Amino acid sequence: MSILIHTVSIRTDEKSFNWIEDGYVIINEGVFKKIADGKPSEEELTEADEVINGCGKWVCPGLVNTHGHAGMSLLRGYSDDLPLDQWLKEKMWPFEGKLDLEATKAARGLAMVEMIRSGTTTFLEMYHLFMHEFAQDITDAGMRATLMRSMIGLCSKEEQKEKLLEAVEFAKTWHKAADSRIQTMLAPHAPYTCPPEFIEMIVEEAIKLDLPIHMHLAETRKEVREHIQQYHHHPLEHLEKLGFLSEARWLFAHGVHLNEEHIDLLAEYKAGISHNPISNLKLGSGVAPIAEMLQKGVKIGLGTDSVASNNTLDMIEEMRMAAFIHKGIAEDPILIPAEVAIKMATKNGAELLEHEKTGEIKTGYKADFMIIDSHAAHMQPASNRDSHIVYAAKSSDVTDVYVEGLPLMRNKELLTLDEEKIKFEANEHYQRVRSYI
Amino acid sequence: MSILIHTVSIRTDEKSFNWIEDGYVIINEGVFKKIADGKPSEEELTEADEVINGCGKWVCPGLVNTHGHAGMSLLRGYSDDLPLDQWLKEKMWPFEGKLDLEATKAARGLAMVEMIRSGTTTFLEMYHLFMHEFAQDITDAGMRATLMRSMIGLCSKEEQKEKLLEAVEFAKTWHKAADSRIQTMLAPHAPYTCPPEFIEMIVEEAIKLDLPIHMHLAETRKEVREHIQQYHHHPLEHLEKLGFLSEARWLFAHGVHLNEEHIDLLAEYKAGISHNPISNLKLGSGVAPIAEMLQKGVKIGLGTDSVASNNTLDMIEEMRMAAFIHKGIAEDPILIPAEVAIKMATKNGAELLEHEKTGEIKTGYKADFMIIDSHAAHMQPASNRDSHIVYAAKSSDVTDVYVEGLPLMRNKELLTLDEEKIKFEANEHYQRVRSYI
Asked: What is its EC number (chains A, B) (predicted)?
């Protein structure tokens, strides 16, 4: 199966992050076979199984969401603007405690619809419920994902072992499944929710399986303070002193409360960070020192976290926030320019989630991309495309999304998910779960 | 002319900021005649000149943008991510210096399209070019606006007088014009660009005309530092010591670098603030102490500033940022809850721009409103509408916009502006002006 899309602008990394003004792409068996300036030849047009006139739209790399909990998607708007403890204990946990398979499935269907509609091709899911079922649904929907069964260790040794067994079994079953569209990780929830011995068991399994580890890190000031009280060290120093940082590949979520030495540790051990600026603001967690991390060569991806703390899964808004917030806080308008925000949301994310040959539009790379229609008033005049993508675009400008050459959305119509049914069911299950509380 | 819109949720201020779940509104001669729960009577349906089935959409107050320069709208994406001085001197000013009537008109047409599409009914324009022509275009487009000829006083006394004469003549001509849809103000650009004697002349005219004064204030740290070097006082103290604060009604834009005493001054003199959080972040200006201002009773509206520093005129995004940023900076998730962000973007803005009986959906108020379609995936499940408007909605959810009972957009079609022509001309003039530099 080959597709040729012509008369498009292309954000390609063929020639070190440049735009082709008016060109075409040829996709063969899910892979970019050719990315070129100008018009395709008669032969190329004839050879392609499908020829699409892009009408001047923009072909851009699909967006990669490096931290989330799609299983929580029924919680959008269920509770906002409360103190963190009250929000968690009185609102989030009681609702999550009632999530059954049907409700979680509905939540994740909704999440996939929203992600595809806003140009996301690849995402990370860290959650404890019904991961096998979600992996199957992702396979069917055609998305790309890195999945993990999250583990909280504040329980008995037996329960810890049970969780780890479940996590390992899930990771083995689904690693490189769905033609490698699914990758897996192991996921101890956080240093403050996992005793050292439990983390050690997880690290050992990660080494055995050659899998990376995803973990929440230093999200709030209170969490860090209490961790220091309990373990005498900042959570990152704690992991280092236990010898864990050197033993595995780490992707941390948040990393808000880190000082220079901590950033040096991240750089030294090549640990990545999922920067989740909107969630960090909305929950009052703070602002992660991303400019400093970039300066020291730490690899940063962007994540939305769940809709309970965002409240969308819109990576365009996440890019925009990442580009805005650090300029404002440091009072320095040159920090995180548009192209850096795009790189974090595409190439970096793909590398951190370990999806090889994705995240860029390049010959030989997997054809994960979105198509942006730049005709809306808020995208005029046609000046700088990178600027428009980060500072002006909206998810409503995304018209098409492909993963590995297969269309998941065409002209704003979803092809692999029954959107109306999903929205209906999300509301049904939201009302049902609420009624249990 | 009367319109009845039924089967809608209504964000009404009839009963202290509540939602009517399923109700109807009757608009007569541009004014809300009735806002009611349930279904209209047969008599009401028969009496209305037009009956619209709202299909469960949300009728919400139109958004009010309290600071902007629509005349700069061709500058979207022209330059970003540069140091402020270089951005202004090498990019903004040379381009603005070449703006002629046609280019400015195209810019403002584009701005009006974008504002209507994102639910804005009322806005402020502070600019020095072609204000009469814009006032006429706004009259024709049916929007509501508060307009002023901005004045920079770094010039000869003769030029100052000329500018003031022009500003006063404009203010007189258009005040309460277009059935009071247009209000005017006087606008000394900023304390650092207007010598005290010039501000004094402007204040005197404002008193004579009973008009408020709009002025940039304490936007950047550098500006405040240099002002103190020159005048020995912070710009706000400077205005107070000169006796100006007590003499007129003030609406300041930005107010980023203010301490507690300055906030006390704002409260004492009932001066308002246009909070422009996105522009303040993008230009690296900082974060205004809005939570502190609200606590002391300072009236806050929200503004986008121009697309050169935003890069949109989308008040939904501005509400969202206002709700996010202060939580994050203060590490306090209860600051600026959704309903406060909405109030700033509607009622407060209307009061600050002195458009009486607008900004709320209330019997006897002018029928300025937007209709939101909540069917998109990112608005599910149907939980909390205020939360969804601030934390999840996008301008693409706005389907209809009315000002004083007249539709400016219906089912996403603009009725008073030729959108395609405007977008075409914006691009033409952008290319033309660029070629002069």
From this structure: 3.5.4.28, 3.5.4.31
Residue to test with chain A: of B276, B378, B387, most A Cβ within 10 A? B378
Are B380 and A427 within 8 A, CB to CB? yes
Residue indicated by tokens 């007569």: B28
Sign of the CA dihedral running A149, A151, A157, A158: negative
Distance separating alpha carbons of residues B379 and B376, to the nearest angstrom: 6
pLDDT attached to residue A191 = 97
Q: Encoding tokens for residue A241?
A: 């002193």
The answer to whether B86 contacts chain A (CB < 8 Å) is no
Element (H, E) at A253: strand A250-254
B2-62+360-414 and B63-353 share one fold: no
d(CA A338, CA A327): 12
Provide the ipTM: 0.97
In tens, the pLDDT along B104-114 reads: 999 999 999 99
* Confidence check: pLDDT of B17 > 90: no
Q: Do A377 and B338 touch (CB under 8 A)?
A: no
d(CA A401, CA A369): 6
Q: Token pair for residue A61?
A: 């790399």
Percent of chain A predicted with pLDDT > 70:
99
User: In angstroms, how far is CA B300 from the centroid of its own chain?
Assistant: 11
Q: Is B221 annotated as a binding residue?
A: no
Task: Cis check for the bond before A277: say yes or no (omega within 30 of 0).
Answer: no
Give residue-wise pLDDT tens across range B107-134. 999 999 999 999 999 999 999 999 999 9
Residue pair B211/B382 in contact (Cβ under 8 Å)? The answer is no
Provide the H-helix boundaries in A121-275: 131-141, 157-174, 177-180, 196-209, 221-231, 235-241, 260-268
pTM, full prediction: 0.98
Q: Is B117 annotated as a binding residue?
A: no
A43-65 pLDDT per residue, tens? 999 999 999 999 999 999 999 99
User: Quick check: A233 contacting B, CB < 8 Å?
Assistant: no
Question: Mind giving me the DSSP string for B143-179?
Answer: -EEEEEEEE---S-HHHHHHHHHHHHHHHHHHTTHHH
For β-strands A398-403 and A144-151, DSSP reports them as unpaired
- CB-CB neighbors (< 8 A) of B338 in chain A: 80-81
Per domain, the residue ranges of chain A are 2-62+360-414, 63-353
Of A83, A285, A392, the CB nearest to B334: A83
B237 membership: H or E segment, kind and range: helix B235-241
Q: What is the pLDDT of residue B269?
A: 98
Largest CA distance in chain B: 71
Name residue, tokens 């998607």: A73
Q: What is the mean pLDDT of residues A361-383?
A: 98
Query: Cβ–Cβ of B76/A327 closer than 8 Å?
Result: no
- pLDDT tens for B212-249 read 999 999 999 999 999 999 999 999 999 999 999 999 99
Closest approach of B397 to chain A, Cα-based (Å)? 9
pLDDT surpasses 80 at B16: no
**Digit-coded pLDDT (tens) for A92-118:** 999 999 999 999 999 999 999 999 999
Q: Is residue B385 part of an annotated ligand binding site?
A: no
Contact A238, A211 (CB under 8 A): no
**Per-residue pLDDT at A16 exceeds 80:** no
Strand blocks (E) in A54-159: 58-61, 63-65, 120-127, 144-151
Q: Which CATH number fits domain B63-353: 1.20.1560.10, 2.60.40.150, 3.20.20.140, 1.10.287.110?
A: 3.20.20.140
Q: Does domain B2-62+360-414 have CATH number 2.30.40.10?
A: yes
DSSP string over B8-25: EEEEESTTSSEEEEEEEE
